[in-house]
Amino acid sequence: MHDITQLLQAAAQGDREAGDRVVTALYEDLRRQARRHLRQSGAMTLLDTTALVHEVWLRLADVQGRDFPDRRHFFAYAGRAMRTVVIDLVRARQADRRGGGQDLLTLNTAVVEQTPQAGDEVLQVHEALDELARWEPRLAQVVEMRYFAGLAERDIAEALGVTERTVQRDWQKARLFLAESLRG
């Protein structure tokens, strides 16, 4: 655990080899996190676990001077990056599905009504989470760290500098807010 922290700090200083060693050491954990994201987004992304991990790694590698003080912060950031990758792919897929800027000619309106809505649901969750972040940023961080990064309440509390009970209350508030936002 201490070695990962040292590698993360070295990577933040620009040591590319240290960054590669971090990903090698945490690769299976990143794959588990990616599997969770892909299960939640359904078939809308057309990505597999490995492709999502590699896409996130490319995004993480491009972040110059990003300081991850420890493993939990790294996974919280990776979770946000995965969420961004999935949302970008869902949006692109929906744009293509809707014609990608081309004129749409549908003679049978029933075809449009039969289009799967899984991507719409992913985007609704994303938009509700963005709204929550504007309203109460810490609640959104708790959701990202717990739901998207898969961190335990203890780890979230430590990363945010609050108590576990505060994380539990934040999680409850966030779930209520998101449920209400998604209803109407």
Would you write up a description of this structure?
The chain is mainly alpha-helical and 184 residues long. Helices cover 76% and strands 0% of the residues. The protein has nine helices and no strands. The chain has helices spanning 2-12, 16-41, 49-61, 71-97, 109-113, 118-135, 137-148, 153-160, 164-183. Helix 4 crosses helix 6 (118-135), helix 4 crosses helix 7 (137-148) and helix 6 (118-135) packs across helix 9 (164-183). The protein starts with a helix and ends with a helix. Residues 101-117 have low confidence and may be disordered.
Rg over C-alpha atoms, rounded to the nearest angstrom: 18 Å
**Structural class, please?**
mainly alpha
Average pLDDT rating: 76
Major β-sheet profile: none
Q: Give me the number of helical elements.
A: 9
Helix-strand string: HHHHHHHHH
- Termini separation comes to 44 Å
Q: How many beta strands in the DSSP annotation?
A: 0
What does this entry show, briefly?
With 184 residues, the chain is mainly α. 76% of the residues lie in helices and 0% in strands.
Keywords:
184 residues, 0% strand, 76% helix, mainly alpha
How is the topology of this model organized?
Blueprint lengths: L1 H11 L3 H26 L7 H13 L9 H27 L11 H5 L4 H18 L1 H12 L4 H8 L3 H20 L1
Helix pairs in contact: 1-2, 2-3, 2-4, 3-4, 4-6, 4-7, 6-7, 6-9, 7-9, 8-9
